[in-house]
Write a structure and sequence with these properties.
With 239 residues, this protein is α/β, with parallel strands linked by helices. It folds into two domains: 67 residues, Response regulator (Rossmann fold, 3-Layer(aba) Sandwich), CATH 3.40.50.2300; 147 residues, Response regulator (Rossmann fold), CATH 3.40.50. 40% of the residues lie in helices and 21% in strands. The chain is built from seven helices and ten strands. Strand 6, helix 5 and strand 7 form a beta-alpha-beta unit. Helix 2 packs across helix 3. The longest helix is centred in the middle third of the chain and has 17 residues.
Length: 239
């Protein structure tokens, strides 16, 4: 059984204990030392580094922002990577984060983003689940820009969303199923997917959408990705 989402953290452990003869693959969170739960986690700090670098390249004001759903460790990891990527490109850039306090409230997301845009911030990275929909609305209303997360979200508003930091959930699940078919699957492990495993990357939408990111910036993101893979850039993690 494949289970996706941090909100199932308690439930999957209860079910796994009740049915110990079944195997579970838990996506996008980590549970250690449970024999029948295999976890697939993503190095969101690496993907967010690329998002921060892109925002810094494309910002016209030298001020960028982030809206996080809640002030919790995983969102802090996004924040640390985002700030590091932005500072790598422009050491003087200003980066501000607001935690909306909710993952399910677009109104709070919009309020948070509007507060950032009012400070001359011109690009906001949303890491807030459904709350992030409000960030996209704020970008549209103010004529400014946003960066999506987890999947390619440009389709929501291709005139306001310049790119998305996506997780390779499809790749990781495919490779897990492949391991099962080959008899190489070892239950109870934790597998991490970062830039090297194509587990995090920047997506720019489809060819029919307006092009909001320059070729130069796209090429530089590719170069930074290669540097992370090669170990030339070590992306910090939240403590």
């Amino acid at each position: 059984m494949v289970v996706v989402g941090f909100e199932f953290y308690d439930v999957i452990q209860e079910v796994a204990a009740e049915f110990p003869d079944k195997k579970y693959v838990y996506i996008d969170n980590v549970i250690e030392n449970v024999e029948n739960i295999t976890c697939i986690d993503y190095k969101e700090n690496e993907g967010s580094f690329l998002a921060g670098a892109l925002a810094a390249m494309e910002s016209k004001t030298g001020k960028i922002g982030m809206v996080g759903g809640m002030d919790i460790p995983v969102i802090r990891n996004f924040q640390v990577g985002y700030e590091a990527g932005a500072k790598y490109i422009n050491p003087d850039i200003q980066v501000e984060t607001i935690f909306a306090g909710d993952f399910e409230d677009p109104a709070k997301g919009k309020e948070s983003a509007l507060a950032l845009y009012a400070k001359d911030i011109d690009i906001v990275f949303q890491v807030a689940g459904k709350t992030g929909e409000g960030v996209f609305e704020a970008a549209k209303d103010t004529g400014k820009f946003a960066i999506g997360v987890d999947s390619d979200q440009r389709y929501i508003n291709p005139d306001a969303i310049i790119a998305s930091m996506i997780k390779g959930v499809d790749i990781s699940i495919y490779e897990t199923i492949e391991k099962i078919q080959k008899g190489e699957f070892e239950s109870g492990n934790v597998y991490e997917y970062g830039a090297k495993e194509n587990g995090v990357r920047i997506a720019y939408g489809t060819e029919d959408m307006p092009k909001l990111v320059s070729d130069e910036a796209m090429n530089q993101i590719q170069e930074l990705t290669a540097m992370i893979i090669q170990g030339d850039i070590e992306v910090p993690e939240a403590n």
